[in-house]
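Budget justification aside, the reviewers requested a transparent look at the raw inputs and outputs of the sequence design task funded under Objective 1. We therefore reproduce one unedited record. The lines immediately below are the structure tokens for a 308-residue chain.
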């Protein structure tokens, strides 16, 4: 006969009940989870910030190498020697449309890097400021237009025999964007701000670091690109070019521009990245190759010295 086993349950058996969390326990668990989430978010933010800073440093290093190569090839820095903008009053005439060769009158004034009349600024003073802006890297991208009657016109192109001349572009053209910024930055002293002074339109430059919105003179976000106080903003192409559409070509946010100093005045040639806060702190008087740590805005600047 088969035997069937049945559980024997006594009258006074122990009852098991599922008990929920108390309010205190829920609060403790919530606090622990919030702390872990905050720590994870902080770590992610730190990783992103370090990655952006590393990318900015790599970008600045690439531009500094391009500047050095330009100097090795031509014997001059951009904006120096035959690559300076012609003096006001110099008449330039293109020998034939699209040739890139110009006859200058007087011949001794034939020192141009670009044709004055092609610049986006309306008068000679603003064109000079545009060309001399420390953010201007045009000559690393575009073939210079030296006058054919200039004694150094041979630097207009690369001479493989003499191993001299322009053989760019020295930077990929994809790196080039147009930055509008204040003209207060002074190449002679290395002082000033990108968001103070008269606005220079569409300077061809390179940005580095974390994306920032366009800034006005108070470092607040621009309310309108058309506002004259909106100094620091970027475009993919010049605003005066045919086909420009603000919604398409104006960047809502962009890294801050890389700035070069000392290229034309016999000072210490150097490239500056304004750091994560995007503010340039000015020159270090005791050593231009170091950030200006005495200025709060210069605490996180990065300086690459190109030579003494």
């Amino acid at each position: 006969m088969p035997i069937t086993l049945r559980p024997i349950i006594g009258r006074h058996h122990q009852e098991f009940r599922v008990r929920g969390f108390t309010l205190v326990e829920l609060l403790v668990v919530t606090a622990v989870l919030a702390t872990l989430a905050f720590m994870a978010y902080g770590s992610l933010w730190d990783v992103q910030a370090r990655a952006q800073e590393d990318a900015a440093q790599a970008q600045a290093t690439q531009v500094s190498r391009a500047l050095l190569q330009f100097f090795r090839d031509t014997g001059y820095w951009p904006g120096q020697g035959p690559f300076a903008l012609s003096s006001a009053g110099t008449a330039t005439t293109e020998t034939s449309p699209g040739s890139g060769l110009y006859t200058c009158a007087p011949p001794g004034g034939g020192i141009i890097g670009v044709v004055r009349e092609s610049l986006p600024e309306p008068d000679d003073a603003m064109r000079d400021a545009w060309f001399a802006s420390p953010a201007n890297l045009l000559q690393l991208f575009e073939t210079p237009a030296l006058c054919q009657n200039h004694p150094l016109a041979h630097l207009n192109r690369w001479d493989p025999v003499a191993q001299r001349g322009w053989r760019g572009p020295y930077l990929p053209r994809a790196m080039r964007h147009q930055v509008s910024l204040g003209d207060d930055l002074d190449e002679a002293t290395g002082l000033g701000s990108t968001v103070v002074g008269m606005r220079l339109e569409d300077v061809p430059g390179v940005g580095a670091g974390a994306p920032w919105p366009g800034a006005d003179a108070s470092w607040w976000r621009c309310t309108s690109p058309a506002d004259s106080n909106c100094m620091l903003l970027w475009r993919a192409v010049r605003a005066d070019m045919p086909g420009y559409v603000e919604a398409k070509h104006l960047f809502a946010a962009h890294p801050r521009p890389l700035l070069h100093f000392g290229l034309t005045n016999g000072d210490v040639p150097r490239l500056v990245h304004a750091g994560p806060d995007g503010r340039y702190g000015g020159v270090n008087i005791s050593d231009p190759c170091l950030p200006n740590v005495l200025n709060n805005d210069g605490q996180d600047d990065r300086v690459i010295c190109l030579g003494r």
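The two ends are 108 Å apart (CA to CA). Helices lie at 23-74, 124-132, 246-249. Computational costs for records of this kind are itemized in the attached budget.
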